[in-house]
Design goal:
Layout (H helix, E strand, L loop, with lengths): L1 H30 L9 H14 L4 H32 L9 H16 L7 H31 L2 H5 L3 H27 L3 H23 L3 H9 L3 H9 L13 H33 L7 H27 L1
Helix pairs in contact: 1-2, 2-3, 3-4, 5-11, 5-12, 7-8, 7-11, 10-11
Length: 321
C-alpha cells in the first residue's frame, strides 16, 4: 500500500506540475518573451520561470513560492539519495563497523563539500553541464543496466541448466537482442532514421525469436514462459502476489500484469532508452553542449565515466567478498 501511495502522489505531482509549466510557457509566449532554448532543465527553472514571475503582480510572493518549491524538491532528492546510498553501504560487509547515522552524516558532509563549487561565479555553467551529462548519460545507462539485470541476467543460470535447448535458445535471443539493438540504434540514429531503425529492429528480432523457438525444442507456451519471459516472469509474479488475500490463489489480472510488466522491462524500455542514449550522443558529438568550452565538456563527460567506474568497481568488490 505504501508503494502505491508514493507512486500515485509522485505521478499526481508531476501531472499537476505539467499544467503549471505549460501555463507559464504559454503566458510568456503571448508576451513575446519566451526563449525556445529554455523550455526544460535548469533553463526552465532558473530563467523562464523568473522571467515570467518578474512580469506578474506581487512578483516577490511568487518568487518566494518558487524558491521554497525548489528548496523542498532539493531536500526531497537529498533524502532519497542519502537513504539509498547509506542503505547500500550498511548492507555490505562494513555494516557492523559504523552506525548508520554516522554513515548518513559523512554522506551529508561530502555532499555539502561537493556543492560548494556550484556557488562560485561559474557555478551555473558547472551546474548546467553536470545536470546535462548526469541525466542524459548516467541515469539512462543506469536504466539500461537495471533492465539488463532484471530481464536478461536474473534467473538465467537456473534456466540454462534445465536443458541444452534452454541454454542455446536463451543465449541466442540474448546476444541477438543486444547486438542487433546496439548496431541498429547507432546506425539509424546517426542517419536520423530512428523510427525506421525501431521498426527494423523488431522485424529482425521477431525472426530471431522464431529461430530461438526452434533451438529450444519447447512448445510455444513453454518457450514464452521459460525463455522469452525468463527472469521478469518470476519477478512480476513476486510483485503481483503481494496484492492477494489468499497467497495461494492467483488473481484474474496477474497474467496480464506479467505480460505488461515483463515486456516493458525486458524489451521495450531498454530499446527506447538505447535509441534515446545514442540520439543524445549524436547531438553532443555534433556540437558542444550549451556552446560551452572544451574544459566544461570534459568535466561533464567525467560524471558518467566516474559513475560507471564506481558501479563496476562495486561489482568486483562484492564478487571478491
Amino acid at each position: 500500500m505504501d508503494s502505491i501511495i508514493i507512486s500515485v502522489c509522485n505521478c499526481s505531482f508531476s501531472f499537476i506540475a505539467g499544467f503549471a509549466v505549460w501555463s507559464v510557457v504559454g503566458y510568456l509566449e503571448k508576451l513575446g518573451k519566451l526563449d525556445p532554448k529554455n523550455l526544460s532543465g535548469v533553463g526552465l527553472a532558473f530563467i523562464t520561470y523568473p522571467t515570467a514571475i518578474d512580469t506578474m503582480s506581487a512578483p516577490n510572493f511568487w518568487a518566494l513560492l518558487l524558491g521554497l518549491t525548489l528548496f523542498m524538491l532539493g531536500i526531497d532528492s537529498s533524502f532519497s539519495a542519502i537513504e539509498a546510498t547509506s542503505t547500500v553501504i550498511c548492507d555490505t560487509a562494513w555494516s557492523g563497523k559504523a552506525p548508520r547515522m554516522f554513515v548518513a552524516f559523512v554522506l551529508c558532509v561530502v555532499g555539502f563539500l561537493g556543492s560548494l563549487p556550484f556557488c562560485c561565479n561559474w557555478g551555473f555553467i558547472l551546474f548546467d553541464v553536470v545536470d546535462h551529462y548526469l541525466c542524459a548519460y548516467l541515469l539512462i545507462m543506469i536504466g539500461i543496466l537495471q533492465a539488463f539485470g532484471c530481464g536478461w541476467f536474473f534467473d538465467i543460470k537456473d534456466t540454462m541448466a534445465k536443458s541444452e535447448g534452454h541454454k542455446n535458445s536463451l543465449l541466442f535471443i540474448s546476444y541477438t537482442f543486444w547486438g542487433i539493438l546496439i548496431l541498429i540504434a547507432c546506425v539509424t540514429t546517426f542517419m536520423e532514421k530512428q523510427l525506421i531503425g525501431m521498426i527494423s529492429f523488431w522485424v529482425i528480432y521477431i525472426i530471431c525469436m522464431i529461430i530461438g523457438l526452434k533451438l529450444s525444442n519447447l512448445s510455444p507456451k513453454q518457450y514464452y514462459e521459460e525463455i522469452l519471459m525468463c527472469g521478469v516472469r518470476k519477478i512480476a509474479y513476486s510483485c503481483s502476489q503481494m496484492g492477494r488475500e489468499n497467497p495461494q490463489e492467483m488473481l484474474w489480472w496477474e497474467p496480464a500484469f506479467v505480460i505488461y510488466w515483463g515486456v516493458l522491462v525486458k524489451y521495450i524500455n531498454p530499446m527506447l532508452l538505447m535509441f534515446i542514449q545514442v540520439g543524445i550522443l549524436r547531438d553532443d558529438l555534433k556540437k558542444n553542449y550549451g556552446g560551452y568550452d572544451t574544459q566544461w565538456q570534459v568535466i561533464g563527460w567525467a560524471i558518467p565515466i566516474i559513475g560507471l567506474l564506481l558501479f563496476f568497481m562495486s561489482i568486483c568488490i562484492c564478487q571478491s567478498e
